[in-house]
Amino acid sequence: MMKTSFLLIVLALAPAFTFASEWNLDLLMHDLAAVRSDHASFVEIKSIAMLDKPVKSSGELYYAAPSHLEKRTLKPRPESLTVDGDNLIIARNGQIHRLQLQKYPEIAAFIDSIRGTLSGDRTALEKNYKTSLEGTPERWTLLLLPTDPRMQKVAKEIRIKGERNALNSIEIIQADGDSSVMTIERLTRP
Amino acid sequence: MKTHKGILLWLAFITACIFTIVHSRFTADLSAFLPRNPTPAQQILLEQIEDGLASRLILVGIEGGDPERRASLSMEIAKKLRADPRFASLSNGEDVYGERDKAYLFEHRYLLSPSVTPSRFEVAGLQEALSESIDLIASPAGLLFKSLLPRDPTGEMARLLEQMESAPMMQDGAWASKDGKRALMMVETRASGSDTDAQQRAIEEIRKAFDQSHAPGMRLLMAGPGVFSVNSRETIKGEVSMLSAISISLIAILLLLVYRSFVALILSFLPIISGALAGIAAVSLAFGTVHGITLGFGTALIGEAVDYSIYLFVQSGRDKDEWIRRFWPTVRLGVLTSIAGFATLMFSGFPGLAQLGLYAISGLVTAALTTRFVLPHLIPAGFNIRDVSAIGDALSRKVALAKRARWQAIALLLAACIVLFMHRNDLWNEKISSLSPVSQADVALDAELRSDMGAPDVRYMVVVSGKDQESVLQTSENASSILQNQVELGALGGFESPSRYLPSLRTQRVRQMSLPDPATLASRLSQAVAGLPLKAERLSPFLADVETARHQALLQRSDLERTSMSMAIDALLIRHAGRTSALLPLKARDGKDIHAQAIRSALAGLDGVLLIDMKAESDHLYSGYLHEAILLSLTGTALIVLLLLISLRSWLRVIYIVLPLAASVITVTAALALFHQQLIIMHLVGLLLVVAVGSNYALFFDRGESGISECSPKTLVSMLFANLTAVAGFGLLAFSRVSILQAIGVTVAPGVILALVYSAIFAKENHG
After folding, report:
1. If exposure means fewest CB atoms within 10 Å of the residue's CB, which of A120, B253, B574, B668 is most exposed?
2. Which residues on A lie below 8 Å from B533 (Cβ)?
3. What pLDDT, on the 0 to 100 scale, is given for residue A19?
4. A181 CA: distance to closest CA in chain B (Å)
5. In a domain, B95, yes or no
6. DSSP H helical segments within chain A, as ranges?
7. pLDDT reading at A18 higher than 70
8. Which residue of A has its CA nearest to B537?
9. Where are the beta strands (DSSP E) in B166-205?
10. Which sign, positive or negative, has the C-alpha torsion B205, B209, B211, B216?
């Protein structure tokens, strides 16, 4: 009896063990790539050396595979940032600015890392970052370190945490020491 | 002796004409539609069309392949063209000036930013500006501006960037259309838009660069004013050569059937060729350039110029001197009638029409004189045309019968008058586009590429004129603040102004004076940061920059060189003939029209400021031409009547001659109205041609004075052949794709037939 239940436990655990040993970046990317669109709320806290206290903002995130990403800030004041392919659209103070992402490496560095993760595009990520994955499918942390010297001037590291195919937080440490932590909560099931 | 003199003179004349033509410039741009004595508003339109930046732009699209291939092709072509001195600039989204642009704006932000006022640098103003900057840094766009905060905590750079026009969409590093199916480029030629030859070379150069890149499956599209004039010149050239080839062949076959002599055939063409050469040479000498419209008209005139030699050959038979004595006075009167009709056109303010008038007169006079003084000496001895007496007799019987159809003709004429009365309000097409030789496909492509580029066609433009750059910029600034007010009221989507990139010296000085000295600024700053998460010590670079700006040299036009804003300044700030003008193009709000009257009254207080509705202005221009042309034609008609009265000295005979001509004009116009063809200026020219050609018929039928009561069968035959050739010459134009040629064709071909028939019907019956 005792032996049986022990076996059962072992049996029950077995898949998890095998899963854990085989689980890797490719599988995570595969899981992430399966999400074609996503909608989440966020709270972001930025610590900027120049400012004496952190600033907080919140809003919603929209994503559509492979390259559409929208960050709609609702507080402290409504504004939005939309990325579509190479184009960056910032709506602020009732005005819309269309910028070309590649002209602004400061922004491109972060957007590419987040978009690359969301779309599960390992090749795109590894073009500009050294990646390392820790944890389990239920609780993983993807660490991105920029390899491109131009990007190293802006970003020191990007730490993305998640469970299965959902992102929970994005932490960015900039080269100048400023940092931001964005906590994400999925609003719709893909 | 006299023989040789005539021929020698003619040869010398023809040589001179050819020499002139070889050195002529041919164009097909809008210049033909531009007024010769423009109003100030039209003058600006005119300069823009002839030499403005907009006239030098070629919009290029690349289709086919995948986005990456298109973008790399765009960069490849751009690289080649940037190295070519014929192109002033090439924009395709590649960052050529980005750093210089940013540096220009940042280094001069306190001179450029409209928010630099004394109150902005008071404690309250600073506090407001700082909290806004903190919000900006916390915002998604914050990363762009964070590094600027210590030097620019009041956010002037962000303010300046906000004003800049947004660029087209990017795809793989190059501009692309919104639907992502095309790569886009904007090429600026160094040559002006009115230099059609240079535009053609530029277009060929772009195509060559594309072809050299060996891109199978890819397509190159081009649009813009220069492309328009090159294409329409090609179209007109192609149509003119094809239609003249066909009409010459038709006429040649007809003449050969009658003459049975190649020498006579060639001789018949001498007046046509001489007339055409003289016409082109005269226009070239008088106007500097020959417009495509004029060349097209030349084709039309073949049909009339050939008539003179037909009259000579068919009517004279063997005795040339007899013809000169008996018939030449009638032909001469016909030529004079035509001259009277066309002469008034030369006074038109519409250069296209004036060119036609001059061409017609010099062409017809030369053709008639060649027929009279050169041909008789060249006719081969023993030349005799086919015996046409049988046709002549048959025609005589028909003509006798025709007179019985008078009442039917009068009924038809009355019906035509009723039709005209019913269509009196929509008889004329008053839009300038009706005259444009540009194809619909070209116009559609241009509109498409423009919307891809996010650069809609500008309809409304505020124009500020003044004696120098400084005063014009000052007034532009006043106009800008009124326009900005309209934007905030929602009446306007936005606008551009040169003062945005280059403020007037006065404004720059005022802005500079708003900046406080370092000690004052430092103390105000330390009060302003109270309560904000920002320490004043961090902002010492700001203090340094403001201090530099207080002693900075004011911006001059030359400071903009090698930035992308210099292109904007070149387009928006124009110097011409000792006068400076600034252009402020207006943008409507999405889906809304601009209420011109409201904007106009808002700007009313400013001197030298004008709101131009480009579309209304050019339509107005054309309807002005149209009304003028109608008036000139009526004057021409009066001149014709006067001329006939002087030479014939009989009201009755004049009426008998004018009646069939008037009847043909009325009937043709009514028929066009029935077929819903609205009349443009070229229909009017066609009607004048009907009068010119028809006057010969009417005069031959008249001939009362010479004592020969009825038209001889030979004369009738000559008229029939002249009529057939005229129909062959003009009728083909009715099939042209170029609206102006088509208009002449559909008017003249039926018109000359009617003129002959009416002349026969209404001819005076001498012996009951």
Report:
1. B253
2. 51-53, 55
3. 47
4. 12
5. no
6. 2-22, 25-33, 105-119, 122-128, 149-152
7. no
8. A50
9. 169-171, 174-176, 182-189
10. negative
